[in-house]
Write a structure and sequence with these properties.
By secondary structure, the chain is mostly beta strands. The protein is 8% helix and 50% strand. It has 2 helices and 14 strands.
Length: 334
């Protein structure tokens, strides 16, 4: 018991450190700064499983897609794992993401990840036409997009505590303008080993500001979304040490994540996941304090083929005024 208390104190110390780093400078500000940060694509959730549970995922989803949420959860990888995700985003935008993770015995887990948002193309038009025509289109097309490439390392420091770090490169372009920078994530994961209760926290996108124009009225540039998450989860139904034991064919997990960002007020995500026989999963979640995309649903299929574990996950997020996005993720464990 003394050992467990010591490990919990370590986790709390790390949590306070992350919270201090992510706290806004002006604590008296009482307004939401929506639209005041750049690189908004980093807020798009990757992984249909994570999205389906309302993005309340950092304390119990320990698959390869943890690189996009909480790097500490990568310690759930036992050998090699890879995934590919696709999302049909608003206005015919296409979002692609992928990651590969590998466990180095007695050392930890390393992973590389990639994500991109393609804006597509649109007709180029001038403010005024040189010929005086009402049609200012030039006949050319312009495009743009966002790209993220990252490297993650995660390690178990005890049989209950894991810590992970991510370094990533972000780039955003539109027409002939663009900006890029490096950003960093850090996360922790703690398994109480009691009734399936887990705690986790992550801080994402520590970085400087960016500028899109060499000459700009905004000399200080634009920050990118700094996201601080704290989460907990519990296995309400599972085989063994749990609140309800219905045998090995049933597993029900309930989770909750609290979010603090530098461009909006605090938010709360809750979600649940039910597995039957380790083959079929039903998921649902709700995000509080959002104008759109509050409710989410999804399902997952898991099967072993020739020693390879294959998972196929789907998520649907309900939007009222915007087109509701669909996400699909395929993962493989070797």
């Amino acid at each position: 018991m003394k050992r467990n208390h010591g490990e919990l104190r370590k986790l709390l110390t790390i949590a306070l450190g992350i919270a201090a780093m992510s706290a806004p400078v002006d604590v008296s500000a009482q307004f939401n700064k929506g639209g005041r940060t750049a690189f908004q694509f980093v807020k798009i959730g990757v992984g249909a499983r994570q999205v389906a549970v309302g993005e309340a995922c950092i304390s119990f989803v320990t698959d390869i897609n943890g690189v996009f949420w909480n790097p500490a959860t990568l310690t759930g990888i036992s050998n090699t794992e890879a995934s590919f995700s696709y999302a049909s985003w608003f206005a015919d935008l296409q979002y692609l993401a992928g990651a590969v993770g590998y466990r180095i015995p007695d050392y930890g887990v390393v992973a590389v990840q990639y994500a991109s948002l393609d804006y597509g193309t649109m007709p180029e038009a001038l403010i005024t036409s040189p010929t005086g025509s009402a049609d200012t289109r030039t006949g050319k097309s312009i495009g743009g997009g966002d790209v993220m490439v990252g490297l993650t390392f995660s390690r178990e420091f005890t049989d209950q505590l894991s810590i992970g770090f991510t370094a990533k490169y972000l780039k955003e372009t539109l027409f002939q303008y663009g900006a890029d920078l490096f950003a960093f994530d850090v996360g922790t994961f703690y398994d109480l080993r009691f009734k399936g209760i887990r705690l986790a926290m992550s801080a994402q996108n520590f970085a400087g500001s960016v500028k899109y124009l060499d000459r700009s009225d905004r000399e200080e540039g634009y920050d990118i979304p700094l996201i601080f998450r704290m989460g907990t989860s519990v296995d309400v139904i599972r085989n063994g040490d749990s609140f309800i034991d219905l045998g090995e064919n049933h597993l029900l997990t309930i989770s909750a994540d609290a979010l603090h960002t530098n461009d909006f007020a605090e938010r709360l995500h809750i979600g649940g996941e039910y597995w039957f026989s380790g083959m079929l999963a039903l998921r649902g979640g709700y995000r509080f304090n959002y104008d759109e995309g509050n409710m989410s649903f999804g399902l997952g299929l898991h099967h072993v083929v020739s020693g390879v574990e294959i998972s196929l996950d789907y998520a649907y997020v309900s939007f009222e005024y915007l087109e509701s996005p669909h996400r699909v993720t395929m993962s493989m464990r070797f």
